[in-house]
């Protein structure tokens, strides 16, 4: 088999995908926790992938995305490194060709992408407050002693959702406690929390955006049927959840690699990177008032790359 590798490394999850050489089929997908250690997560993800298909696949190109895309690109030898907006837009437009709106909610941030004729023309992100993200749902599920996998199904059983103040994570939690003390059913409270998250998303991230169908919902939170139902109620429109909703960024990175790499020209370093010892460090450059934080990447105690400075002084010295 021949295929393209896509890696999406975020603050919460690391996703690895291999698509076939036509770009139509996902041969392998993997979703694991980053746990604050992107280097280890990438190596673990690659090790898990090669355990299944190493002898059967030729990698024709590699793309990376996510908050640790530069680090990952250096590690694996990426042919293309793109931001999450581009990667998610490319994946959604490929899987739902006429998609016009992408709702994406991850662990630490949420975003909306407006597509017209397959091109991203506008977007917005929320990276400030956790009230509209998956980590907030995780926190509340833990507090209620409910597995997060069951959260959405409980919300679907609600008879009447309870209105929860959702503009702030702290206020939402205190309001939930108050509603519990008043004797509301757990299912109704969870449904109210889902509606609060959606309300927060639409009022902050989606404010001023023209949300047209088809609407694609992706990111880890798309697994929560309660959130999907809340979006459909709020927008009065159908929401499409792709089969591989949780790894769409990685799929987009793989598709971008397919678009940009000529046959036989990949920079991919091979799966043996899982055996190498990578280490990241940083330093402050005091050469000017910017005081840039410069990131150093070492492999086997040798400097591999540097980035982070605005003027390029250190990038060129690696």
What's the arrangement of secondary structure elements?
Blueprint lengths: L1 E8 L3 E8 L5 E8 L4 H16 L4 E8 L3 H8 L3 E2 L2 H12 L5 E5 L4 E7 L2 E8 L7 H10 L7 H6 L12 H13 L4 H19 L10 E4 L6 H11 L3 E2 L7 H13 L17 E7 L8 E7 L2 E6 L11
Parallel strand pairs: 1-4, 4-5, 6-9, 9-10
Antiparallel strand pairs: 1-2, 2-3, 6-7, 7-8, 11-12, 12-13
Helix pairs in contact: 3-9, 6-7, 7-8
Architecture overview:
With 318 residues, this protein is α/β, with parallel strands linked by helices. The protein has three domains: 2-90 and 249-274, Nucleotidyltransferase, domain 5 (2-Layer Sandwich); 97-241, ATPase, nucleotide binding domain (Nucleotidyltransferase, domain 5), CATH 3.30.420.40; 278-317, no CATH class. The protein has helices at residues 38-53, 69-76, 84-95, 134-143, 151-156, 169-181, 186-204, 225-235, 248-260, and strands spanning 2-9, 13-20, 26-33, 58-65, 80-81, 101-105, 110-116, 119-126, 215-218, 239-240, 278-284, 293-299, 302-307. The strands form three sheets. A five-stranded mixed beta sheet has the order 3-2-1-4-5. A five-stranded mixed beta sheet has the order 8-7-6-9-10. It has a three-stranded antiparallel beta sheet with strand order 11-12-13, covered by helices on one side. Strand 7 (110-116) and strand 8 form a beta hairpin. Helix 3 (84-95) packs across helix 9 (248-260) and helix 7 (186-204) packs across helix 8 (225-235). The chain is globular. The mean pLDDT is 86.
